[in-house]
Structures
1.
Amino acid sequence: MVKSKSAYSIPGKQGKLDTHIIVVWVDNEAGVLARVVGLFSGRGYNIESLAVAEIDPKLNISRITIVTTGTPQVIEQIKLQLKKLVPVHKVADFKREDKKVIFKEMALFKIVGNQSKKEKALKACKKYNAIILDKSNKSYVIQITALRREIDLMSKNLKKFGLVSVSRTGAVAMTRGSEIFK
Amino acid sequence: MSKLYSGAEIVFKCLEDQDVEFIFGYPGGAVLPIYDELKNFNFLKHILVRHEQGAGHAAEGYARSSGKPGVLLVTSGPGATNAVTALTDAYMDSVPLVCISGQVPTHLIGTDAFQECDTTGITRPCTKHNWLVKDVKDLGKTIHKAFEVATTGRPGPVLVDIPKDVQFQKTNYTKLKKQKKTNGKIHNHFSQKDIDELIELMNKASKPIFYTGGGVINSGPKASELLRELVNKTGFPITSTLQGLGSYPGEDSQFLGMLGMHGSYEANNAMHDCDLMINIGARFDDRITGKIDEFSPKSKKVHIDIDPSSINKNVKVDLPIIGDVAEVITSTIKTIKKTKPNFAKSNKQKISKWWEQIQKWRSVNSFDFVNSDETIKPQYAVQRLYELTKNKDTYITTEVGQHQMWAAQHYKFDKPNRWMTSGGLGTMGYGLPAAVGVQVAHPNKLVIDIAGEASVLMTMQEMSTAVQYSLPIKIFILNNEYMGMVRQWQELLHDKNYSESYTAALPDFVKLAEAYGCVGIKASTPQELDDKIIEMINTDRPVIFDCRVDKQENCFPMIPSGKPHNQMLLGPKDQKENKITGKGKTLV
C-alpha cells in the first residue's frame, strides 16, 4: 500500500484479542435484532456467531448469544453500548475459557456414500452426542452438539466419508450450577 | 365512554402534555392528516422551514439555547432522509430532538410505495431509539416514551414513524402522568467513596487541571454555576472543549481557553503536562486527544460522565464517576466544605509553580495574529464583533470550518446555552437554521450566525424562513471565497494543491439578502468594519453581512492530528515553527 501523505490519524497500539460470549436479553420486538447487529457492524465489532430465539413468550423476551473477539477495551465498550439500547434488559459476558459456563453449538451433517462410509462417519461423530435424524440407502443426516472447534474439526474430517452438506447454529451458553445471571 | 381521538389528534395531545410550544416542519402526503389538525391546537406554533435538514438544525438550535427538546415534523421518504443529517448531528452532540415522521399506510409498507423508505432502518444508527407505530393504541405512550428517551441520561435524537392510516384511526387518549421515574439507564452510579477518592486526588495534585465539555451545559444552568464554584474553591486552572464553551466565563483568569486541535497553547500544554486531569462531561474526542498513546502521559485521569459507555472508550481513566454533572459537583463541593474548608488556601502554595508555568505558556499569546490596515483579518472581525456585542447577552451559532474555530478562539462566552456549533459531526450549513431555532426560542435576543461563505450556501434557503416569521437573525459571513479549512490543509499538507477548494462563482450576498427580503450589508476594509457591525446590530430585520476577509489567512495554533498536545504549530509570528517538516506532513 502506498503510504498516504495525509493519514487522518495514527492508530494506537493494538491490545490482545480475546474471544467472549455475550448474552443479551431483549424485548422481542420488530427490529431488535437489527439494532443489536447494527451496533456491532456500525462500530466495527466482530461477530463470529449468533444465536437468537424467544425464551419467554409471556414477557416477550428473546435471548441473543453472540460470540465475538476484541481487546478488553472493545469488549467493555460492546457491553456498555448494548446496555444503552432501549429494548435491552441485561447483558452477560463470558470468556470462552470460562470453566463455569457451558457453551454448545449444534451441527447437521449430510453424509452420502456406501454403508461402510456412513458407519465410519457415524462412528467418528459418536463422542459428540450423535443422533441420526434421517437415513436412506445412500445417506445419513447426523446431528451433533459440540464446541465450535470440535465442529470445525468434524466438518474437515468427515469429508473423506462423503460429507456433502453442513448446517450449523451459533453458540448458546448457560452457567453451570444453580446460579443464574441477574 | 371517553372521547375517541384520531392518531393525528393524539400527536398534538402528546405535544401539549409535553409542553411543546414550537414545532419545525414541512408538510407532505404522509403527514397531511397531522397538518390537517394543526389549526385545532393553539398551544403550538408551527415554523415552516424550506428543507427538512433546516427543520432539524433549527430544532437543535432551539433545544441547545433553551434546554428543552426540539421537535420536528417531516413527511415520509425524502422528508425523512433529508432530516438524517440533522439527526446524526444531534446524536453526535447529544442534543434532545423528537422527530415525528409520516410513513406510507401500513398496507403499503414494503411495496416500494410512492415516497416510501425504511425510515426506522435508515435512522436506527443516528437516533437513541426509534419506533414505527403500527397500531394507534400504541401511539400516545410511544410519543411520551420518545420524549423520555430523548431527554434523559445523555440526551439525543429519537424518531417516531407514523403510517398515514394510523393517523386516521381513532382510540382513547390517556393523559401523561407526570412522574420522575427514570428509565433505569440514567441512574447516578457514583458513591461517596468515589467523591472522597476524587478529593484525595485533588489534594495530592500539584499540576491539576479541569477539562470540561458539553456535558456541563447539558446538565443545565445549575451545573455551570456549580462548576464556577468548584473551580473557584480549588484554584485549579480550567480548559473547555468546543462544546463546553460558556459553562465557565471566557474572560476569567483561571480559564485557559479552548483546548484541542485549534485550542490555546497554554490549555494544550497544561493538558499534556498535568498530573491530575478532571474531565467533567467531555468525551476524549480525537480532536482533543491528538495521538492517544502520547496523550497526557503523566496524569491521573478522572472522568465524570452520565454515559457509562463514554468511560474508557478512547482513553483509559483511573477514576470513573458515572452521574449527572450537577449532582457530582454538588457532592464534591459539599464534601470539600465539610472535610477541607480551607482547601483553596492550603492548596495555593502547592500549585503556585504550576500557575507560573501556565503563565509562561500564556505569554506565547497563541491566538495572536498579524493584523492589517488594508484587509480585514477574520480574527479581527470576530474580535470586533465580540467587543460590539458582548454587553447584549448574544447568542452565537456557527457553520463549520476556519470561521468556527476563530469564533471559538476570539468570542468569549460567560453564560451557558449561548454557543451553538456542530462539533461532533461538523455539519456545514448548521449555523443558519440553528440561528432560526435560537431566535424562535429567544425572540428578543441578538442571534448571530458566524458563518463561512461556503457553509452558509448549503442551507441558505432558510433565510426565507427567517423572513416569513420576522426572525431578525444576523448572518455574519467571513467571506474568503475559499473553503478555508480545506484550503489551509491543502496549503500546509498537500503542497498547496488547492484542489476544488476555491468557489469561482459566488452570489452577491447583498443582492441575495435583498432577494430574500432581508437586509444586506458589506464590509471590505477594517476602517468601515465597526460602523457596519453596529448597523447590523441596529437592524431589527434579518441581515446577511458579507465581511470580505483576507483570503490566505490560516487558523493557528494547530495540533496536526496524530501528534501529541505539546507539538503545536503556532502562527506566523512564531517564525521557527512556521514550516511543517516532511515528517509533520504525514501526521495530519
2.
Amino acid sequence: MAIVEMKHVDILALDRDKPALLREIQKLGCVHLVPSDTEDATFKRIADESELPALEETIARIYWAIGKLNHYDKTKKPLMADKPAIDETQALAILDRQPELMAIVESLETLDREAGELRGQAARVDAAREQLLPWRGLSAKLSDIATTRNTVALTGAVPKKALDQWLTENTLGDLCEITPVSQERDQAYVTLLMHRSIQEQTMQKLKDANFSAITLPRLDTTAQEQLTELEAQRGDTVEKQKVILERTAAYAGEINAFKQLYDILSVAKARLLAAKNFMASQSTFFLQGWVPAPLTEKVEKQLKKVSPSAALEFYDPAEGEEPPVILQNATVFRPFESVVTSYALPSPFGIDPTAIMTPFFINFMGMMVSDAGYGLMMSIVTLILIKVLKPSPTSRKMLWLLCAGGVATVFWGAMYNSWFGFAPFPSPLDPMNNALPVMGLCIGLGAVHLFAGLGVAAYMNIRRGHPLDAVADQLSWFLLIVGLALLAVKPDVGRVMAIAGAAIIVVFAGRAKSRNPLKRLISGLGALYGVTSWLSDLLSYIRLFGMGLATGVIGMVINILVGIVAGFGPVGKVMAGLVFIGGHLFNAGINIFGAYVHSCRLQYIEFFGKFYEDGGKPFMPLASPSRYFRLEETPLRA
Amino acid sequence: MTIGQILALLGAAVASIGAGIGSSRGVGLAGETSAGVSAENPEVNSKLLLLQLLPGTQGIYGFLIAVIVLINTNVLGGVMKPVELYQGLGILIGCLPVGIVGYYSAIKQGKVSAAGMIMTGQHPEMSGKGITMAVMVETYAVLSLLLSFLIVNSIKL
C-alpha cells in the first residue's frame, strides 16, 4: 500500500559524457526527466534536434514497410506471449544491416509506386473496354464512322422503345440511316448517318427521344480488334502485378529484422526527445528529473561509473510540488494495481488503496460469479495459461487477478451451493428460495466495504494531523449509520449512537464554509441529507445478489435444456454434451466479465467515493520503448 | 388453459420481449459505433468488445425472469400448474419491472457505451472509465431484475 516516494535529482555533467550518460539513464529506466530549470544565465536551453526529423522519417518508413510485409508474413503469432528479447550483439548486427535494410525499404517503396501505377493502368483499360463493349458487333473501323462534307455520322445510345418507333414509323425520314449495333437492357446502341440538310431537325427529334451521343475513339481498327488488344494489355498488367506481389512477398522473411530495427531506432529517438529537456553551457549540460527514493543510490553509482565527473544531487520535493506517481505493492497485490490505475492514479498526497481494496474486489467478484464450478474452471484455466503461454507481464497480471477471483468464486459458489448450475449439497445460503438473508449479507458486506473506505479517509486525516476532521467527517457518519442499523435490534444503543453521529454532523459539517454559527448549523442540517447517498450506496451492493442469482438461474436453465435434449436417443446424448459445455462456457464468460466490471464499479463509485484523491501524473522514466522486442542492452552506436 | 395461466405466460413473454428488444437495440447501436471506431483505430478493437457486451445483459435478465416464471408454473416440467386469476395478474405485474426498465436501460446503456467507444478510440487508456460510465446505467436494470424476481418468487402456486 504505497505510492513510491520520489526524490528530485539534478545532474550536471560534461558535454562529452552526454551520450554515455543518457544511455545509462535509459538502461536504468528509473529517471523521470523534466525540462530543466535554472536561473543561472550561463545555461541556455539547447535545441539540437537536427537528427530528430531524419530519424523520425526513417522510423516511419520502417513502420510502413513492416505493415506492408505483415500481409505476407506467414509465421504464427503466439497468443498473449511475451515479447522476445534481443541482446546487444543481435542489436549491433541489425544496426550493421541498417543500410541494407533501408535499401529494401527503398525497393519496397518503388514496388508500391509501380503497383499504384499498374492499378491506374488497369482502371484505364477497364474503362476503355467498358466503353467499347457495346460496339463489338460493328464491322466498320472506328475511324470510318466520320462526318463528311455532306453527311453527318453519329454514335450513341437511345431507349429501345424509341428505336423501335423510329424503325417502324420511319420517323427520322429517308435521309437518315439507322444501324442498330447492340442492345443492353432497355438501351440500344446505334450508329446514325444522315444528310447534312436534315441535321437540325433530326437532332431535335433525337433529343426528344432521349438519344445520348457517345464519342468513340478514332482508331484505325474495328471495335472487336481494339477489344482484343485491350484484353491483351489487361492480361499484361495482371501479369506485372503478380510479379510485383511476388517480389514484395520475397522480402517477408526480413520482417523480423525490420521490427528489431524499428525498436532499436525508437529507443534512440526516445533519447533524442529526452535531450530536448536539457540546458547547456559551453561544455556542460544540466538535467533535472525525479527518481524513486529507494533507487537514488543505485542511480548515483551507475551514473558515476560512466561519467565520474558528473555531479548529482538528490533532494526532497518542495512544499506543494507534485511528484509523478508510481504504485509499488507486495507481489500478491500487484495484479490489482491495474484496477486502481484504470480508474485514475492517486494524487501523490493521497493513498494507494490497492491492498485494502483487494480482498473486497475478489470476494465481490466471487459473489457475482457465484458458481463453484466456474470458479474452479477460472483458477485452473488461468494457471495453465500462465504456465503454458508465458504471457507478457500485463496479461500475466490479468490472469492472476482472474485466478484469485476464481478462488473466491469457489468459496462463494460453495456457499450458494451452485456447481455448474447443480445444487448437490445442502447449503447455508439459498438465493433462489430464501432471498432475504442473502440480500442482507450483501448489504452487510457493502457496509463493511463503505466503512473500510471511511476508515481510510479517517487514517488520512489523522496522518495529516487533522484528527478532528476524522471525528467530524468520518466517525460521525459511522456512528449515524451503525446507530440507524442498530435501531432495529438494540433500539436504546442505536438511538444514542445515531443521535450522537447526527449531532456531530450538524455541528461540524459546515465548519469550513462560514464562521457564522447559524449558517454553520444550516449547512450542517443540509449535510444530514447525505444519509440518502449512504442509502443508495448501500443498496448498490444488492447487485452482488442480483448478479449471483443470474448466474445460478441461467446455469440451472442450461441444465434443464441439457436434460430435455438428452432424451432424444444417442444423438441427443451427444447434443446434450455440446449444449452443456457450450452453455456453461457462455454463462461463465459473460458472468465473469460482468462480475469483473461490477466489482470495479463498486470500488470506483462506492468505495473510492469515501476517500479517494486522484489526479497523480504517471511516473514516466526515460526507458527503452519497444513495440516488438524486449531490448536487453541499448546498443552503443544507436 | 385458464386466464390465470395465460397471464403468467404473458408475463414471461413481456419480460423477455421488453428486455430482449432493448438489448438488441443497445448492442446494435454499440456495435455500429464499435465498427466505426475500429475502422479508424483497429488497435482498440478488443477494448470495444467489452463495451459492446454491456447493453446485452438486460436481455439476459429478462430471459432469466421469464424462465423463473416457467419454472414456478412448471411449464418446463411438462404440465402447467393451475394459476388463479389474481396469481396470474401478480406474475404479470412482477414481470413488468424487468421488461420495461430492461428495455429503456439497455438502449440508454448502448448510447453510453457508444460514447465510451468514441472516447476509447481517441484515448485508449480511458476505456476503463468508459466501462464504468456504462455500468452506471446497468444498476437500474439490476434493481428491476431484483424487484421482478422478488415479486414473481413471492407468488406461491
